[in-house]
UniProtKB/TrEMBL annotation, chains A, B:
<keyword id="KW-0238">DNA-binding</keyword>
<keyword id="KW-0804">Transcription</keyword>
<dbReference type="InterPro" id="IPR054129">
    <property type="entry name" value="DesT_TetR_C"/>
</dbReference>
<feature type="DNA-binding region" description="H-T-H motif">
    <location>
        <begin position="39"/>
        <end position="58"/>
    </location>
</feature>
<dbReference type="InterPro" id="IPR001647">
    <property type="entry name" value="HTH_TetR"/>
</dbReference>
<dbReference type="InterPro" id="IPR009057">
    <property type="entry name" value="Homeodomain-like_sf"/>
</dbReference>
<dbReference type="InterPro" id="IPR050109">
    <property type="entry name" value="HTH-type_TetR-like_transc_reg"/>
</dbReference>
<protein>
    <submittedName>
        <fullName>TetR family transcriptional regulator</fullName>
    </submittedName>
</protein>
<dbReference type="Pfam" id="PF00440">
    <property type="entry name" value="TetR_N"/>
</dbReference>
<feature type="domain" description="HTH tetR-type">
    <location>
        <begin position="16"/>
        <end position="76"/>
    </location>
</feature>
<dbReference type="Pfam" id="PF21943">
    <property type="entry name" value="TetR_C_46"/>
</dbReference>
<keyword id="KW-0805">Transcription regulation</keyword>
Length: 241, 241
């Protein structure tokens, strides 16, 4: 950073602006390095302010700053899930996943460090923030399936798909972001369709939700494409029917 | 425990027998209470020996005893996966899952505490033991699919199903072991079939593995049953084909 870069100027900021500036600096650092490798000096330098000023805003030090940055990242992530309840459900899911995967791409190291656990800054509060995001994700999915009070089987299927998305994101980061985000997104949508259809085979509530969702899908959409590619794979198994 | 119960007698045991006796006592305790709620006194009392004797075998105290007990549980768990490579693959998977779910049922509290993380006894060594079990599970599944060097897509699908099994087990414990273990087992098998078929739709290696596996399935088996129950659910979606 050069001495005259914009963030180094000490222009007067309101309390909220200053707090937000420090959180942005912290998020940028926590995104690409593990929390244990970041000091308050790094945050101060990144924001172009003094260390005491960081302490004035976050008297709890790095732990408080980390939790505030995580809370702010969690809000950003939850905004990824917002999607109008219109059009084929798999299209909505694909758009939300695009935004989610862009977030994962942007916060790669911090995302891995947070979710792989064992970090020095992990507390019951950070766990609660992460669980809140998972719960919000599941609620969004169920809302798009027009379900308000899901039974155990449907609820579990959705929760497990959220777990799959999270674990797949970690594997994706671990594999150097291979395959590309668009393929990962399409594959995650297909895995959701497959999981839901399999649960529908033993749960009437899920079967109704699947029928309703399928009626909104189109012949040029992801479900139709999946069906056309699945049929040749299972086509030889006529002995099972 | 009464004073004259067998484990209270101080009969001479070999070093290995004594060590094994202490591990069994520790495992019984760690299975049903969180590690932080167990003291070495509890272990000594359970095994019917003195506290110094426990320390003689485990000079590292509770941490060392916990890791040794976990290693012993991990071996037990890996034995659940052993299954002859004969017959319909879903039957083999169902039998391995039966043994796995019996293990989860038996070690319920310890299983949850271990996998939900944040425990005081969690270290890089305990994480490595758990990861070793996950890796072994994935290798077993791939071996039954006749795959030795899986590509990224198939490898990821299997790893994510292992994650699903683990997460489903935690939800199952959390929901008071509902639905019953047999239904959970059948549902996990069906979810695996669905995930694999969906991946086969975009990956030739997986498609070959699925075709080979389907040829070994029978008309009275789990895949046929799933197919018969899926068809009515998707039957109305002819507009997609």
């Amino acid at each position: 950073m050069t001495p005259d870069s914009p963030t180094r100027t000490y222009r007067r900021l309101s309390i909220e602006e200053r707090r937000s500036q420090l959180l942005i600096a912290a998020l940028e650092l926590f995104a690409h390095r593990r929390p244990e490798d970041i000091s308050l000096d790094d945050v101060a330098e990144r924001a172009g302010v003094s260390r005491p000023l960081v302490y004035r805003y976050f008297p709890g030090g790095k732990q408080q700053l980390y939790e505030a940055a995580l809370g702010s990242a969690a809000e950003e992530l939850q905004q990824c899930f917002d999607e109008a309840p219109e059009g084929p459900p798999t299209r909505r899911l694909a758009r939300a996943l695009d935004r989610y995967l862009a977030f994962v791409d942007e916060h790669d190291t911090g995302f891995s460090a947070l979710l792989q656990g064992g970090s020095v800054v992990e507390t019951s509060r950070t766990t609660a923030i992460v669980d809140g995001v998972r719960r919000a994700a599941a609620e969004h999915v169920l809302r798009h399936l027009d379900i308000t009070t899901p039974g155990l089987r449907l609820r579990t299927t959705v929760r497990l798909w959220i777990t799959t998305v999270e674990a797949a994101s970690l594997i994706w980061l671990d594999e150097g972001k291979q395959p590309d985000a668009a393929e990962l997104r399409d594959w995650l949508v297909e895995q959701f369709v497959a999981a839901l259809v399999a649960t529908a085979a033993r749960d009437t509530e899920t079967a109704t939700a699947v029928r309703t969702a399928l009626a909104l899908e189109t012949a040029d959409g992801p479900v139709a494409s999946l069906a056309r590619r699945v049929l040749p794979v299972v086509g030889d198994a006529a002995h099972l029917l």
